[in-house]
Amino acid sequence: MDNKANFLAKSTVKANDLEHKRKLAFNIQKYADTVVKGKQQFANLEAARKKAKNTKWKAIENLDKQLELFEKNFTARGGKVIWAETAQDALDEILKICQAKKAKTVVKMKSMVTEEIHLNDFLQKHGIESTETDLGEYIQQLDGEPPYHIVTPAMHKSKEDVAKLFHEKLGTEPHLTPPELTQIARKNLREKYSVADIGLTGGNFLIADIGAVCASENEGNGRLSTAFAKTQIAIVGIEKVLPSINDLALFWPLLATYGTGQQVTVYNSIFTGPKQAEEQDGPEEMYVILLDNGRTNLIDKKEIRESMYCIRCGSCLNVCPVYKNIGGHAYGTTYSGPIGSVISPHLNGMKNYNHLSFASSLCGSCSASCPVNINIHGMLVENRHIAIKAHHTSFSENMGWNMWKRAMLSRKLMNIAGAGTKEKLVNKLFKHSWGEHRGPLHFPKKTFQQLWKERKN
């Protein structure tokens, strides 16, 4: 089954799964309610969004210089920077470090970019245990599933689902409460922190002027992942760069508000390299892997470049009517929802993933909800243009729309076809895309032109 067929099959199942939609709606609404309150901290929210967009514009337009400046400042404090063009390059470099340190265990902070390169599976194949330390990611890892949401990995699960999962995988009592489940996860993870050879993180931002990796989280697992292990590896997408540490005063509150409705995330860490001579804790060695993996494809296309401004808050997913009906796993990609539908075809191949850009109502809610004012729905349209120009759409679909266009532009052709002919044509042409879940379309017996002539007479 190809990616498009798989997407349609999964979407059909999830869109008709009322229990799944109930859980998703309940959890998304909780975030929506808190985001409204979080936005109140901004005296002028629109000015903040515009300033954030301008800052990201500056960073991306000068990306090469910003990344070189980051490398210069980070290495000056003893850190090591590795440039990875592909996912395999990043995996190979991580494996080299693990083998050099004879590492057998890794603790990992929540990181979407490590999901993107399928790091856990790779390490497992090489005999290295990698444990997710974020509670949501830990739940998903136990269940053998990828994250469901950019910010909330287990958003589709209820507390009863998690209790059942812990019972099956960890042998706990079957009906534990959320606090009890959290304590069990905490106990299990504490043991992992203390023996881990390597701590692995992602990064919400790269700060060029001081050479730093910034990581935000709400549970403290990121700090525990980096405090005990002698070696820290941070793998970060090249688009995460910000010019100055002063930009965090704007971006940290924006990320927290639009992601979870908080004024600021509970734990915000700035890593500027390995432990210094006068410092008591921290890793003895720190590596930063700067990952491209298709991101320069986004820069290369001016119409799509704006997608590089994304700070991965997940806000566009929470307001998207498509995401709220089919959920995150139906997309079949690491990044789901509207922003995922924009970037995934360029990261993973337009030929195999262009269908995602067509899976949108183009209502514009995603653009309206973006903290950095990204024109997400506009870029979905651009992706459609790119796919059509590259001949990635089917011959039958192209012919159907060409016929439709020609008929709609010709009053003569519209009048020639009677109601019965139109009904047969349209209901047959859109039999699968429209008629599979809806009743047939019926046209009036008389056209508007005929009715107008009768009215005038």
The rough form would be described as globular
Q: What is the strand tally?
A: 10
Q: From the helix content, strand content and strand pairing, which structural class follows?
A: alpha/beta
Strand-residue proportion: 5-15%
- Strand neighbour order, sheet with most strands: 1-10-7-4-2-3
Assembly state of the chains shown: single chain
Biggest β-sheet description: 6 strands, parallel
Task: Outline the low-pLDDT stretches.
Answer: none
Number of helices: 24
Terminal Cα separation, in Å?
A: 59 Å
Rounded to the nearest angstrom, the radius of gyration is 25 Å
Work out the helicity level. Answer: 40-55%
Mean pLDDT: 93
TL;DR of this structure?
This protein is an alpha/beta fold. The protein contains 24 helices and ten strands. It has helices spanning 3-15, 18-38, 45-61, 63-75, 87-100, 112-116, 119-125, 135-143, 159-170, 178-195, 221-227, 248-260, 295-300, 315-319, 323-326, 337-348, 350-353, 355-358, 365-369, 376-389, 395-408, 411-416, 419-429, 448-456, and strands at 80-84, 105-108, 129-132, 198-201, 205-207, 212-217, 231-237, 241-242, 267-271, 285-291.
